[in-house]
Amino acid sequence: MPFDETYFSSHAYRNVSFARFSQYWWSNRFYAILARRAGRRGGRLLEVGSGLGHLVGRLEGHFETFAVDVNPWALVQSKTVARRTPLSLASAEELPFTDGVFDVVVLKHVVEHLPRPERALAEAARVLAPGGGLILSAPNLSSVARRWKKEKWIGYQDPTHISLKEPAEWLALLGAAGFEVRRVFSDGLWDAPYIPLAPKALQKLIFGAPGGFQAVTGIVFLPLRWGETMIVIARKSNHLQEQPTD
C-alpha cells in the first residue's frame, strides 16, 4: 500500500479531523514533550516521516524545525499546520542534509515501514551533532497485548509494517549506528478490547488509564511489557577516539 491519502484515512490517522484531545492529539502532545526535553530551545529539530505534520508543527515555537516524508500528498497537507517548517520530499534512508546539523531527530513510527531500517538509523546519526538526541518509536513485540491478541494485535494490522523487531534487536541496531540508549519505555495499552465479553468502553478506561496518565503528565514510567509501542530516548555518542601522541 502506498503512503497516500488512502493510507492516512485508514490507519492511525483515522478521524484526524481532530477532535481536539483525541488519542492522536494526545500522542503528538506527548512526543512534543519528549522532544523539548531532548534538545535546547532554539536548536534544530528534524522529524523524519512527518506524516500530516502535526507533531513538527507543535514544535515550531521551541525549535528551528525541519521535516521530511516520502509522501507528496502528506507534505501538502502539512503546510496548513507546520507553516514555518521547511518540508522536503525525501527517504529516511537518504536524508538531504549535511553531517551534524541537528540537535534532535524524531523517528515516530517510521522504522517499521522500512526494508532496511538500519540505514535510517545510520542517517539519523549522521545528521545529528555529537550528543544530539534521538526519539524513536516502533510497535512493541514484547507487549503483553501481542500475546493476548495474537494475529489480531495492532502491530500486525498495517500491511506496511515490514520490519517488526523485538526491542533487543532495535537496541542493537541503535548501538551499531552510534547511539547510546538512555531510556526505553512504552505508551500503554490503548487498543482495547483485550478481554472477551467485557465492555470495550470499560476496558479502554481500565487498560488505558496508565498510558493516559503518562501522556497527560509527561511522567515516563510504563515498562515495555505494558504498552503497544516501544519508545526509545537515545543520544549520539560524543566519545571521540583518542589521537595517538608522539
Explain this structure:
The protein is an alpha/beta fold. The protein has a single domain, classed as Rossmann fold, CATH 3.40.50.150. Helices cover 32% and strands 20% of the residues. The chain has helices at 5-8, 23-38, 54-58, 72-78, 117-127, 144-149, 167-177, 200-217, and strands at 44-48, 64-69, 87-89, 102-108, 128-139, 179-186, 229-236. It has a 7-stranded mixed sheet with strand order 3-2-1-4-5-7-6, with helices on both faces. The longest helix is centred in the last third of the chain and has 18 residues, at 200-217. It is globular. It starts with a helix and ends in a 10-residue tail after the last strand. Mean pLDDT is 91; it is low at 240-246.
Strand order of the largest sheet: 3-2-1-4-5-7-6
Largest sheet: 7 strands, mixed
CATH-defined superfamily: Vaccinia Virus protein VP39
Question: What is the domain total for the residues?
Answer: 1
Low-confidence stretches: 240-246
The first-to-last residue Cα distance is 59 Å
| Residue fraction in strands | 15-25%
- Output the CATH topology: Rossmann fold
User: How would you spell out the order of helices and strands?
Assistant: HHEHEHEEHEHHEHE
CATH class: Alpha Beta
State the shape.
Answer: globular
Count of separate DSSP helical elements: 8
Structural class given helices, strands, pairing?
Answer: alpha/beta
Under the CATH scheme, the architecture is 3-Layer(aba) Sandwich
Q: Level of helix content?
A: 25-40%
Overall radius of gyration: 18 Å
Rounded mean pLDDT is 91
The number of strands is 7
